[in-house]
Design brief:
The complex is a heterodimer of chains A (129) and B (767). Chain A has 129 residues and is an alpha/beta fold. With 767 residues, chain B is an alpha+beta fold. Helices cover 38% and strands 19% of the residues of chain B. The longest helix of chain B has 29 residues. The chains are: A alpha/beta (129), B alpha+beta (767). Chains A and B meet through helix 1, helix 2, helix 4, strand 5 and helix 5 of A and helix 1, helix 2, helix 6, helix 10 and helix 12 of B.
């Protein structure tokens, strides 16, 4: 059973509010190593400089959106194995299907609860301690 | 939960920015910008507001934003055509969205009727039948969500049902992964790519790349690749020049600083680039980010060579075993460290206050500071300035030579103090954008109310000015804009009849001019009807009927107390207050306002304010035993008049002949009511001053003490407004001095004809 505190997370969202909310939720779950990026471009730079175990990314962002980020992550061998959870504003089939195509690990619909987010992450990593 | 409350505050701050983005985007759309990027930005703004509102359970806001977002999504996908008419509707919707945000914040109410009507209107645009299934969102998240009790967990709003995979219409299988698998797959973290491009200086100083490579090899196994593609043909080869680049793959447990240490002695003699991981990662990044993120080092040198077709590989000797050190902690990420350098540098300007600073986007390092802390800092710096001035004065009183160490040290202190002051003021400087962005809505509303067509053009939104000034700009600008639309612009029919575009243009501009901020509000309307203005002023007893006034003076009659040209007081520019109130509040800030008009072509209000309300450069003078400060910006020159230059004018007044013109002489002591009888101007000093409107006057003072920067203490806040006095200050010796309001003094003299100042502001007709 993986420890939440040993999993590093990169939160990607253009909204400061959302990043703060996600960080807050992650902290409640037990995550300690949490970094943030405001868009896909920054996120990719961040990951290439220092990989993370998990990326939680918004879809709709300026510069490089969540799908483009997912694609970029999967095409870079050193960070290809990063777990990727996409956040969406609504359960949009087309969007999720494309994300699946690009190898998304899971998705989560906003607004979410702490428990809801936890479940989504556990579906990827297994039960967290 | 405090943290959540804090996030909520952030959310509302962010909403302000998002609403501004939204409005900006919609205005661009109205101007005909139909590009996808604009539409996307507009969509994202509404989407983000809705997202945040959902997290905090702000139900009415979510509901309205949802309808708005749905229509924007349809525009984005091309289902609903992006037209100018649509943009107008969306703009009105954005106003209501702004109201919802304010209401959610507890500031103001939403007209629920108008909101429902707008929601219905938006829904009629989104024709669901016309939307192709592929673009239509299949399932909407349950937008109207119940507000969560305060104790609920973080964004504890939505039911978990919202996340059910069933919503998708297909089964989503989460892809599991283990941290171990990630670790196994990840590249060893101790691989570095070191790129070395020696400059000719390196060789000139008898350094050797081979030595550097050998040193590197002590850190771990290396694999060096030589790129000689820039090497010219032998005949063209300059033996003194450097042409090659080494790329070294290094595996080491050491951190970046250890690698840098190797190059300590060739610092500056070679272009060095150290990146974590294989070089390929960097290349991939560069191609992905076709922006200016490429390391600046490479750009700085000669034209980049094409990749070498046949790189020469050199396998360096194995590392010396004993050099291997204990595992160092993971180094700071390279890219991150390079970020500050990549941030756009603000163009250098003469004064920090006037520097146009790019507002940093999200993610750039921005520190949010409680404004109270900055205010406190500015207060303290103000005290420091006074203290420094006091100290300098005391030292001066002891007759210490200016060349002494003490005096020189004090000079340095003064310079430093000024620099600190400028820097601190720059912290509080803000672009006027925050005020300007509220204006498009005002213009829409006023135009609607007065049945006029108006388009607002804004310029210089990024002009920076101290926060204290920003806060006080809103009211005068609002008033001037209302006035421009209500009184300046003609009705569409009148405009058509006059051969003009039925849509009037109102221009709002901000600029820096001679150490002040100038706000201009102009319209292309009918201009001031001078005959009517003059008639009204006479009828209301504000001026004598036989008074001879220039066109400019007639225009500025509208600032007289009790003057209002509106036949009926409309809600729009009226509310009983006229431009005189605006003028007075502007003057209280040390500012001036004037109007210029051209019949048939429009009018321009010009408002000028100091860049800060905290400090002022002034001339300290003695008048009737009192110490006064005259703002340096107003002083043209100082002189000692000769008797033949002073000519009497009328029973009490006199003028001073300055070169070819005559300037009215004003005894400051008399103007402020310090004394009844003026001494002969030839006994004192005369300051030739110029008002904001260009009118000149010669102020008589008893003596001049010198030029000084003073910290402004508002008289209004501490006492009350006094005509002729702009503010007060504390001088170096601790005494309080009044700061003269030059314009008001000139205006008083003009009205009073030099008579002693009455206690109440006088009307021109009272003479």
């Amino acid at each position: 059973m993986p420890q939440a505190s040993s999993i590093s997370v990169l939160v990607v969202d253009d909204q400061l509010t959302m990043r703060a909310l996600i960080r807050n939720a992650l902290q409640q779950i037990g995550f300690k190593d949490i970094r943030e990026a405001p868009d896909g471009e920054e996120a990719l730079k961040n990951l290439l400089a220092k990989p993370a175990n998990l990326v939680i990314s918004d879809f709709n962002m300026p510069k490089m959106d969540g799908l483009a980020l997912l694609r970029a992550v999967r095409s870079h061998p050193p960070i290809r194995q990063t777990a990727f959870v996409m956040l969406t504003g609504r359960a949009d089939r087309e969007l999720v299907q494309r994300a699946v195509q690009f190898g998304v690990n899971n998705y989560c619909v906003k607004p979410f609860t702490v428990q809801g987010l936890r479940e989504k992450i556990e579906q990827v990593f297994g039960p967290l301690t | 939960m405090d943290e959540l409350e804090a996030i909520k505050v952030t959310f509302f701050q962010e909403c302000e920015e998002l609403l501004a983005d939204l409005e900006g985007g919609l205005l661009a759309m109205q101007e005909g910008a139909g590009d996808l990027e604009t539409v996307n930005a507009v969509f994202r703004a509404v989407h983000s507001i809705k997202g945040g509102a959902g997290a905090f359970g702000l139900e009415p806001l979510v509901r309205f934003a949802h309808v708005f977002e749905t229509l924007l999504d349809a525009v984005r996908s091309g289902t609903v055509p992006n037209t100018v008419e649509l943009a107008a509707v969306l703009l009105r919707a954005s106003d209501i969205l702004a109201d919802h945000v304010s209401a959610a914040r507890g500031l103001g109410d939403v007209d629920m009727g108008a909101s429902a009507a707008m929601a219905a209107e938006l829904e009629t645009w989104t024709d669901p039948n016309a939307a192709p299934a592929a673009h239509a969102p299949l399932v909407e998240d349950a937008a109207p969500v119940a507000a969560a009790p305060a104790a609920a967990s973080v964004s504890g709003v939505a039911d978990d049902d919202a996340m059910d995979d069933d919503d998708l219409g297909f089964v989503f299988v989460p892809q599991t992964i283990t941290v171990e698998a990630q670790a196994a797959d990840a590249e060893p973290s101790n691989v570095w790519t070191v790129s070395i491009r020696p400059k000719s200086d390196l060789y000139r100083k008898a350094n050797e790349t081979a030595l550097l490579l050998r040193e590197l090899s002590r850190l771990g196994p290396i694999k060096a690749t030589l790129d000689d593609s820039a090497l010219p043909a032998l005949g063209e080869l300059d033996p003194e020049a450097a042409f090659v680049t080494w790329s070294v793959r290094l595996e080491t447990e050491e951190d970046e600083s250890a690698i840098r240490e190797v190059f300590e002695f060739v610092d500056g003699d070679c272009d060095l680039e150290i990146t974590r991981g294989e070089g390929g990662v960097q290349d991939a990044m560069a191609s992905l980010l076709a922006v200016a993120e490429a390391p600046p080092v490479v750009e700085a040198v000669e034209p980049a060579p094409a990749p070498a077709p046949e790189p020469i590989e050199i396998i360096a000797p194995a590392p010396v075993a004993e050099v291997v050190e204990p595992v160092a902690p993971a180094p700071a990420p390279v890219v991150e460290a390079a970020k500050p350098a990549a941030a756009p540098a603000a163009p250098a300007a003469a004064t920090p206050k006037a520097t146009p600073v790019e507002v940093p986007g999200p993610g750039q390092s921005v520190i949010r500071v409680d404004p109270e802390r900055i205010d406190r800092l500015i207060d303290l710096v103000g005290e420091l300035v006074i203290n420094q001035a006091m100290l300098a004065q005391r030292v001066g009183e002891y007759g210490i030579a200016p060349s002494s160490n003490l005096a020189m040290g004090l000079d340095e202190l003064e310079q430093l103090t000024r620099e600190i002051q400028d820097s601190v003021m720059a912290i509080r400087a803000q672009p006027v954008k925050s005020v300007f962005q509220r204006m498009p809505r005002l213009v829409r509303e006023v135009a609607n109310m007065t049945s006029k067509q108006a388009r607002l053009v804004m310029e210089g939104e990024n002009t920076e000015v101290d926060k204290t000034v920003i806060e006080r700009l809103s009211d005068p600008i609002t008033h001037m804009l209302r006035n421009a639309i209500d009184h300046g612009l003609e009705s569409p029919e009148e405009r058509k009849a006059a051969g003009k575009n039925p849509e009037g243009v109102v221009r709002l501009a901000a600029l820096h001019r001679s150490g002040r901020i100038v706000i201009e509000v102009s319209d292309d309307g009918k201009g001031i009807n001078r005959e009517r203005v003059f008639g009204i002023a006479v009828k209301k007893g504000l001026i004598a009927p036989d008074l001879q006034l220039t066109d400019e003076e007639i225009d500025n009659l509208i600032f007289l107390p009790g003057f209002s040209t509106a036949e009926k007081i409309s809600d729009v520019s009226g509310r009983g207050v006229g431009m005189d109130v605006v003028k007075r509040s502007v003057q209280a800030l040390g500012g001036r306002i004037s109007i210029a008009s051209r019949p048939g072509q429009g009018s321009t209000f010009t408002l000028s304010l100091p860049l800060t309300l905290a400090v002022l450069d002034g001339m300290v003078v003695d008048v009737a035993g009192e110490t006064l400060v005259v703002p340096l910006a107003a002083i043209v020159e100082s002189l000692r008049p000769k008797p033949e230059e002073v000519r009497p004018l009328g029973p009490v007044g006199s003028v001073l002949a300055v070169r070819d013109s005559f300037v009215p002489l004003i005894d400051v002591g008399q103007a402020l009511g310090y004394r009844d009888h003026s001494p002969a101007p030839t006994d004192g000093v005369v300051l030739l001053v110029e008002g904001e409107d260009g009118s000149r006057a010669a102020l008589v003072a008893d003596a001049i003490h010198g030029q000084r920067q003073v910290v402004i203490k508002s008289l209004e806040q501490n006492y009350q407004q006094v005509e002729g006095v702009a503010a007060a200050t504390i001088l170096g010796d601790g005494r309080v001095a009044l700061i003269l309001d030059v314009d008001a003094t000139i205006a008083m003299r003009r009205r009073d004809g030099g008579a002693p100042r009455p206690t109440e502001p006088t009307l021109i007709a009272a003479e």
